[in-house]
Amino acid sequence: MSNPILIICSREIKNTVTNHYLLGMTLLLATLSLSLMLLGDTPFGSTGVNKLSMQITSLSSLSIFFIPLMALFLSYDAIVGENEQGSLLLMLSYPIKRSEFVLGKFIANWVSLSVAIVLGYGAILLLSLFDNNLTTEFIYAYLGLVFTSILLGGAFTAMALLISVVVIQRGTAIIYCIAVWLFFVIFFDMILLIVLTSKYNYIISANALSGIMLFNPIDIFRIISISEQGSNLLPLQALSKITELPQSVLISSMFVWIVTPLIGAIDLLKKKDL
Amino acid sequence: MPKNILIDYKNVDFFYKQTQVLFDINLTINKGQSVAIVGHNGAGKTTLIKLLIGVLQPSSGAINSIEYVQTNKLSFMPEHNALYSHLSGIELMRYFAKLKGVEPSNINEILKLVEIDFAAHKKISQYSKGMKQRLMLAQALLSDPEILILDEPYSGLDPNSKRLFSRILQNLSVENKSIILSSHTLEGLSDIVDNVIFIKKGRVTLSGKIKTIIKNLGLNDKMQLTLDKGVSADEIIKSVQSLITSHTLLNNELILLYKTINNIALLKIIVNITSVQDIVITKANVNDAYYHIYNKS
């Protein structure tokens, strides 16, 4: 192995294993997803709502809250932490390009998070297997959820790296990460909802709303998850029609959310005076 | 550029944001030359080191250097313990060897050289500060570099580690490696480096060969005489008056400061005074040059 990206990536992944971050994230996702699955059986059992849809929607909500948080906290000190302890200076004196350093960190943290998602949500598959509920439909929905959750994790990992390059102290990085999480997970939709329900709702047309939602990876994730459920998701069917955007556009947008902050992080690190 | 020149800076300035940190830096470092960059804390030594390792780029000026930045020709040892404390010494060395693209076969040999082979499998978090510094030096020796740049290598080292560092660096110097190190003191450096760059408030105030600097600064040698009881110091002072620049008397210790050129003449007079118990001569050294430069306004 002589590629610096792979060497850094491999070392970082080993770190997430040895410091039990990977185990912690996996257990958290497994516990929460299993709890949602088990609890989900009871209230919706006789409402006529498709059980699978509700389970996947519950898991989507879990992804919305926890995956950005995990991604941000896994990567917030990836660069600033190295800078604070002085190892960034040492690493950059080695035959390693700054872009390779950022990419190595990014890939490692994204892979670690993705492994946690696959294993954590994999608990649901095991449970379904025991319950004899493992249908093709369920597997398809599960894979869709895992795939979009991984993309969501990638977007927030890239944002955390960008923050980690911008700031000069770990403490500041934590504050910025919390702000980013609050903005995208809570405030963005809250502001949108306030405008849509106010007398100024004419400002945002249906088409404009689709466009605006692309500015939030959480919303893109939400739309993909909902539309994947299609007509099964009766209570939210109307919401799914807010956007007529095709899946390809939504998934491409998610990739834009991964690539843009990553390029920003690389570019800023190149310009940064250490 | 002549073949023996490694690094040649002409009128280099560096601004950190809006603040100028380095002013009009001119320096030439030849192949096999050992140089100490000396100055107080905040003088600009680390910034100059960062420029030399290529992490920072000059704001203006001309650099003519061989292509050594981000190659295995260069090794760097930072000031702080830039180590991953959750790894063991051997794991860290293997990681750095991979990043440098060198065979990890000589890792044990290097760890033995810096005398931490006994702790190779211990977590770095369990290392003492001296052991961490030695591991930092070990990583710098991994690729058998042509240029070794060390930022404050002696900072916080115990006397044993200092002696070990000096011995290793002297050996590297003998092997014709170029050693550039920064320090805020000059203690023990004259055995390792033959050239010195004094830096003050971002400007090179003086540079060149240590011997030439001492000579040009006209620094005094020191002779310390322990006199027998009842011997008149005045008599001695009177007889050497024309050869010394100043004197100090403390109990029965007489300290004479004089120019090196008067060394023999002064000694001839002194040895004729039988009432002197002991004579200790201290040649003007690089430390005196340091105090001379930095105690000037």
Short description:
By secondary structure, chain A is mostly helical.
Structure description:
The complex is a heterodimer of chains A (274) and B (297). Chain A has 274 residues and is an all-alpha fold. Chain A has one domain (4-271). Helices cover 78% and strands 0% of the residues of chain A. Chain A has twelve helices and no strands. Chain A has helices spanning 4-18, 21-40, 51-75, 80-85, 87-93, 98-130, 136-166, 170-197, 206-213, 217-229, 237-240, 247-271. Chain A is globular, with a radius of gyration of 20 Å. The longest helix of chain B is centred in the middle third of the chain and has 16 residues, at 159-174. By secondary structure, chain B is an alpha/beta fold. Chain B folds into two domains: 5-215, Rossmann fold, CATH 3.40.50; 219-294, YebC, transcriptional regulation domain (Alpha-Beta Plaits). In chain B, the strands form three sheets. In chain B, strands 5-6-7-3-8-9 form a six-stranded mixed beta sheet, with helices on both faces. Chain B is globular, with a radius of gyration of 23 Å. The two termini of chain B are 37 Å apart. Chain B has nine helices and 13 strands. At the A-B interface, helix 1 and helix 5 of A face strand 5 and helix 2 of B.
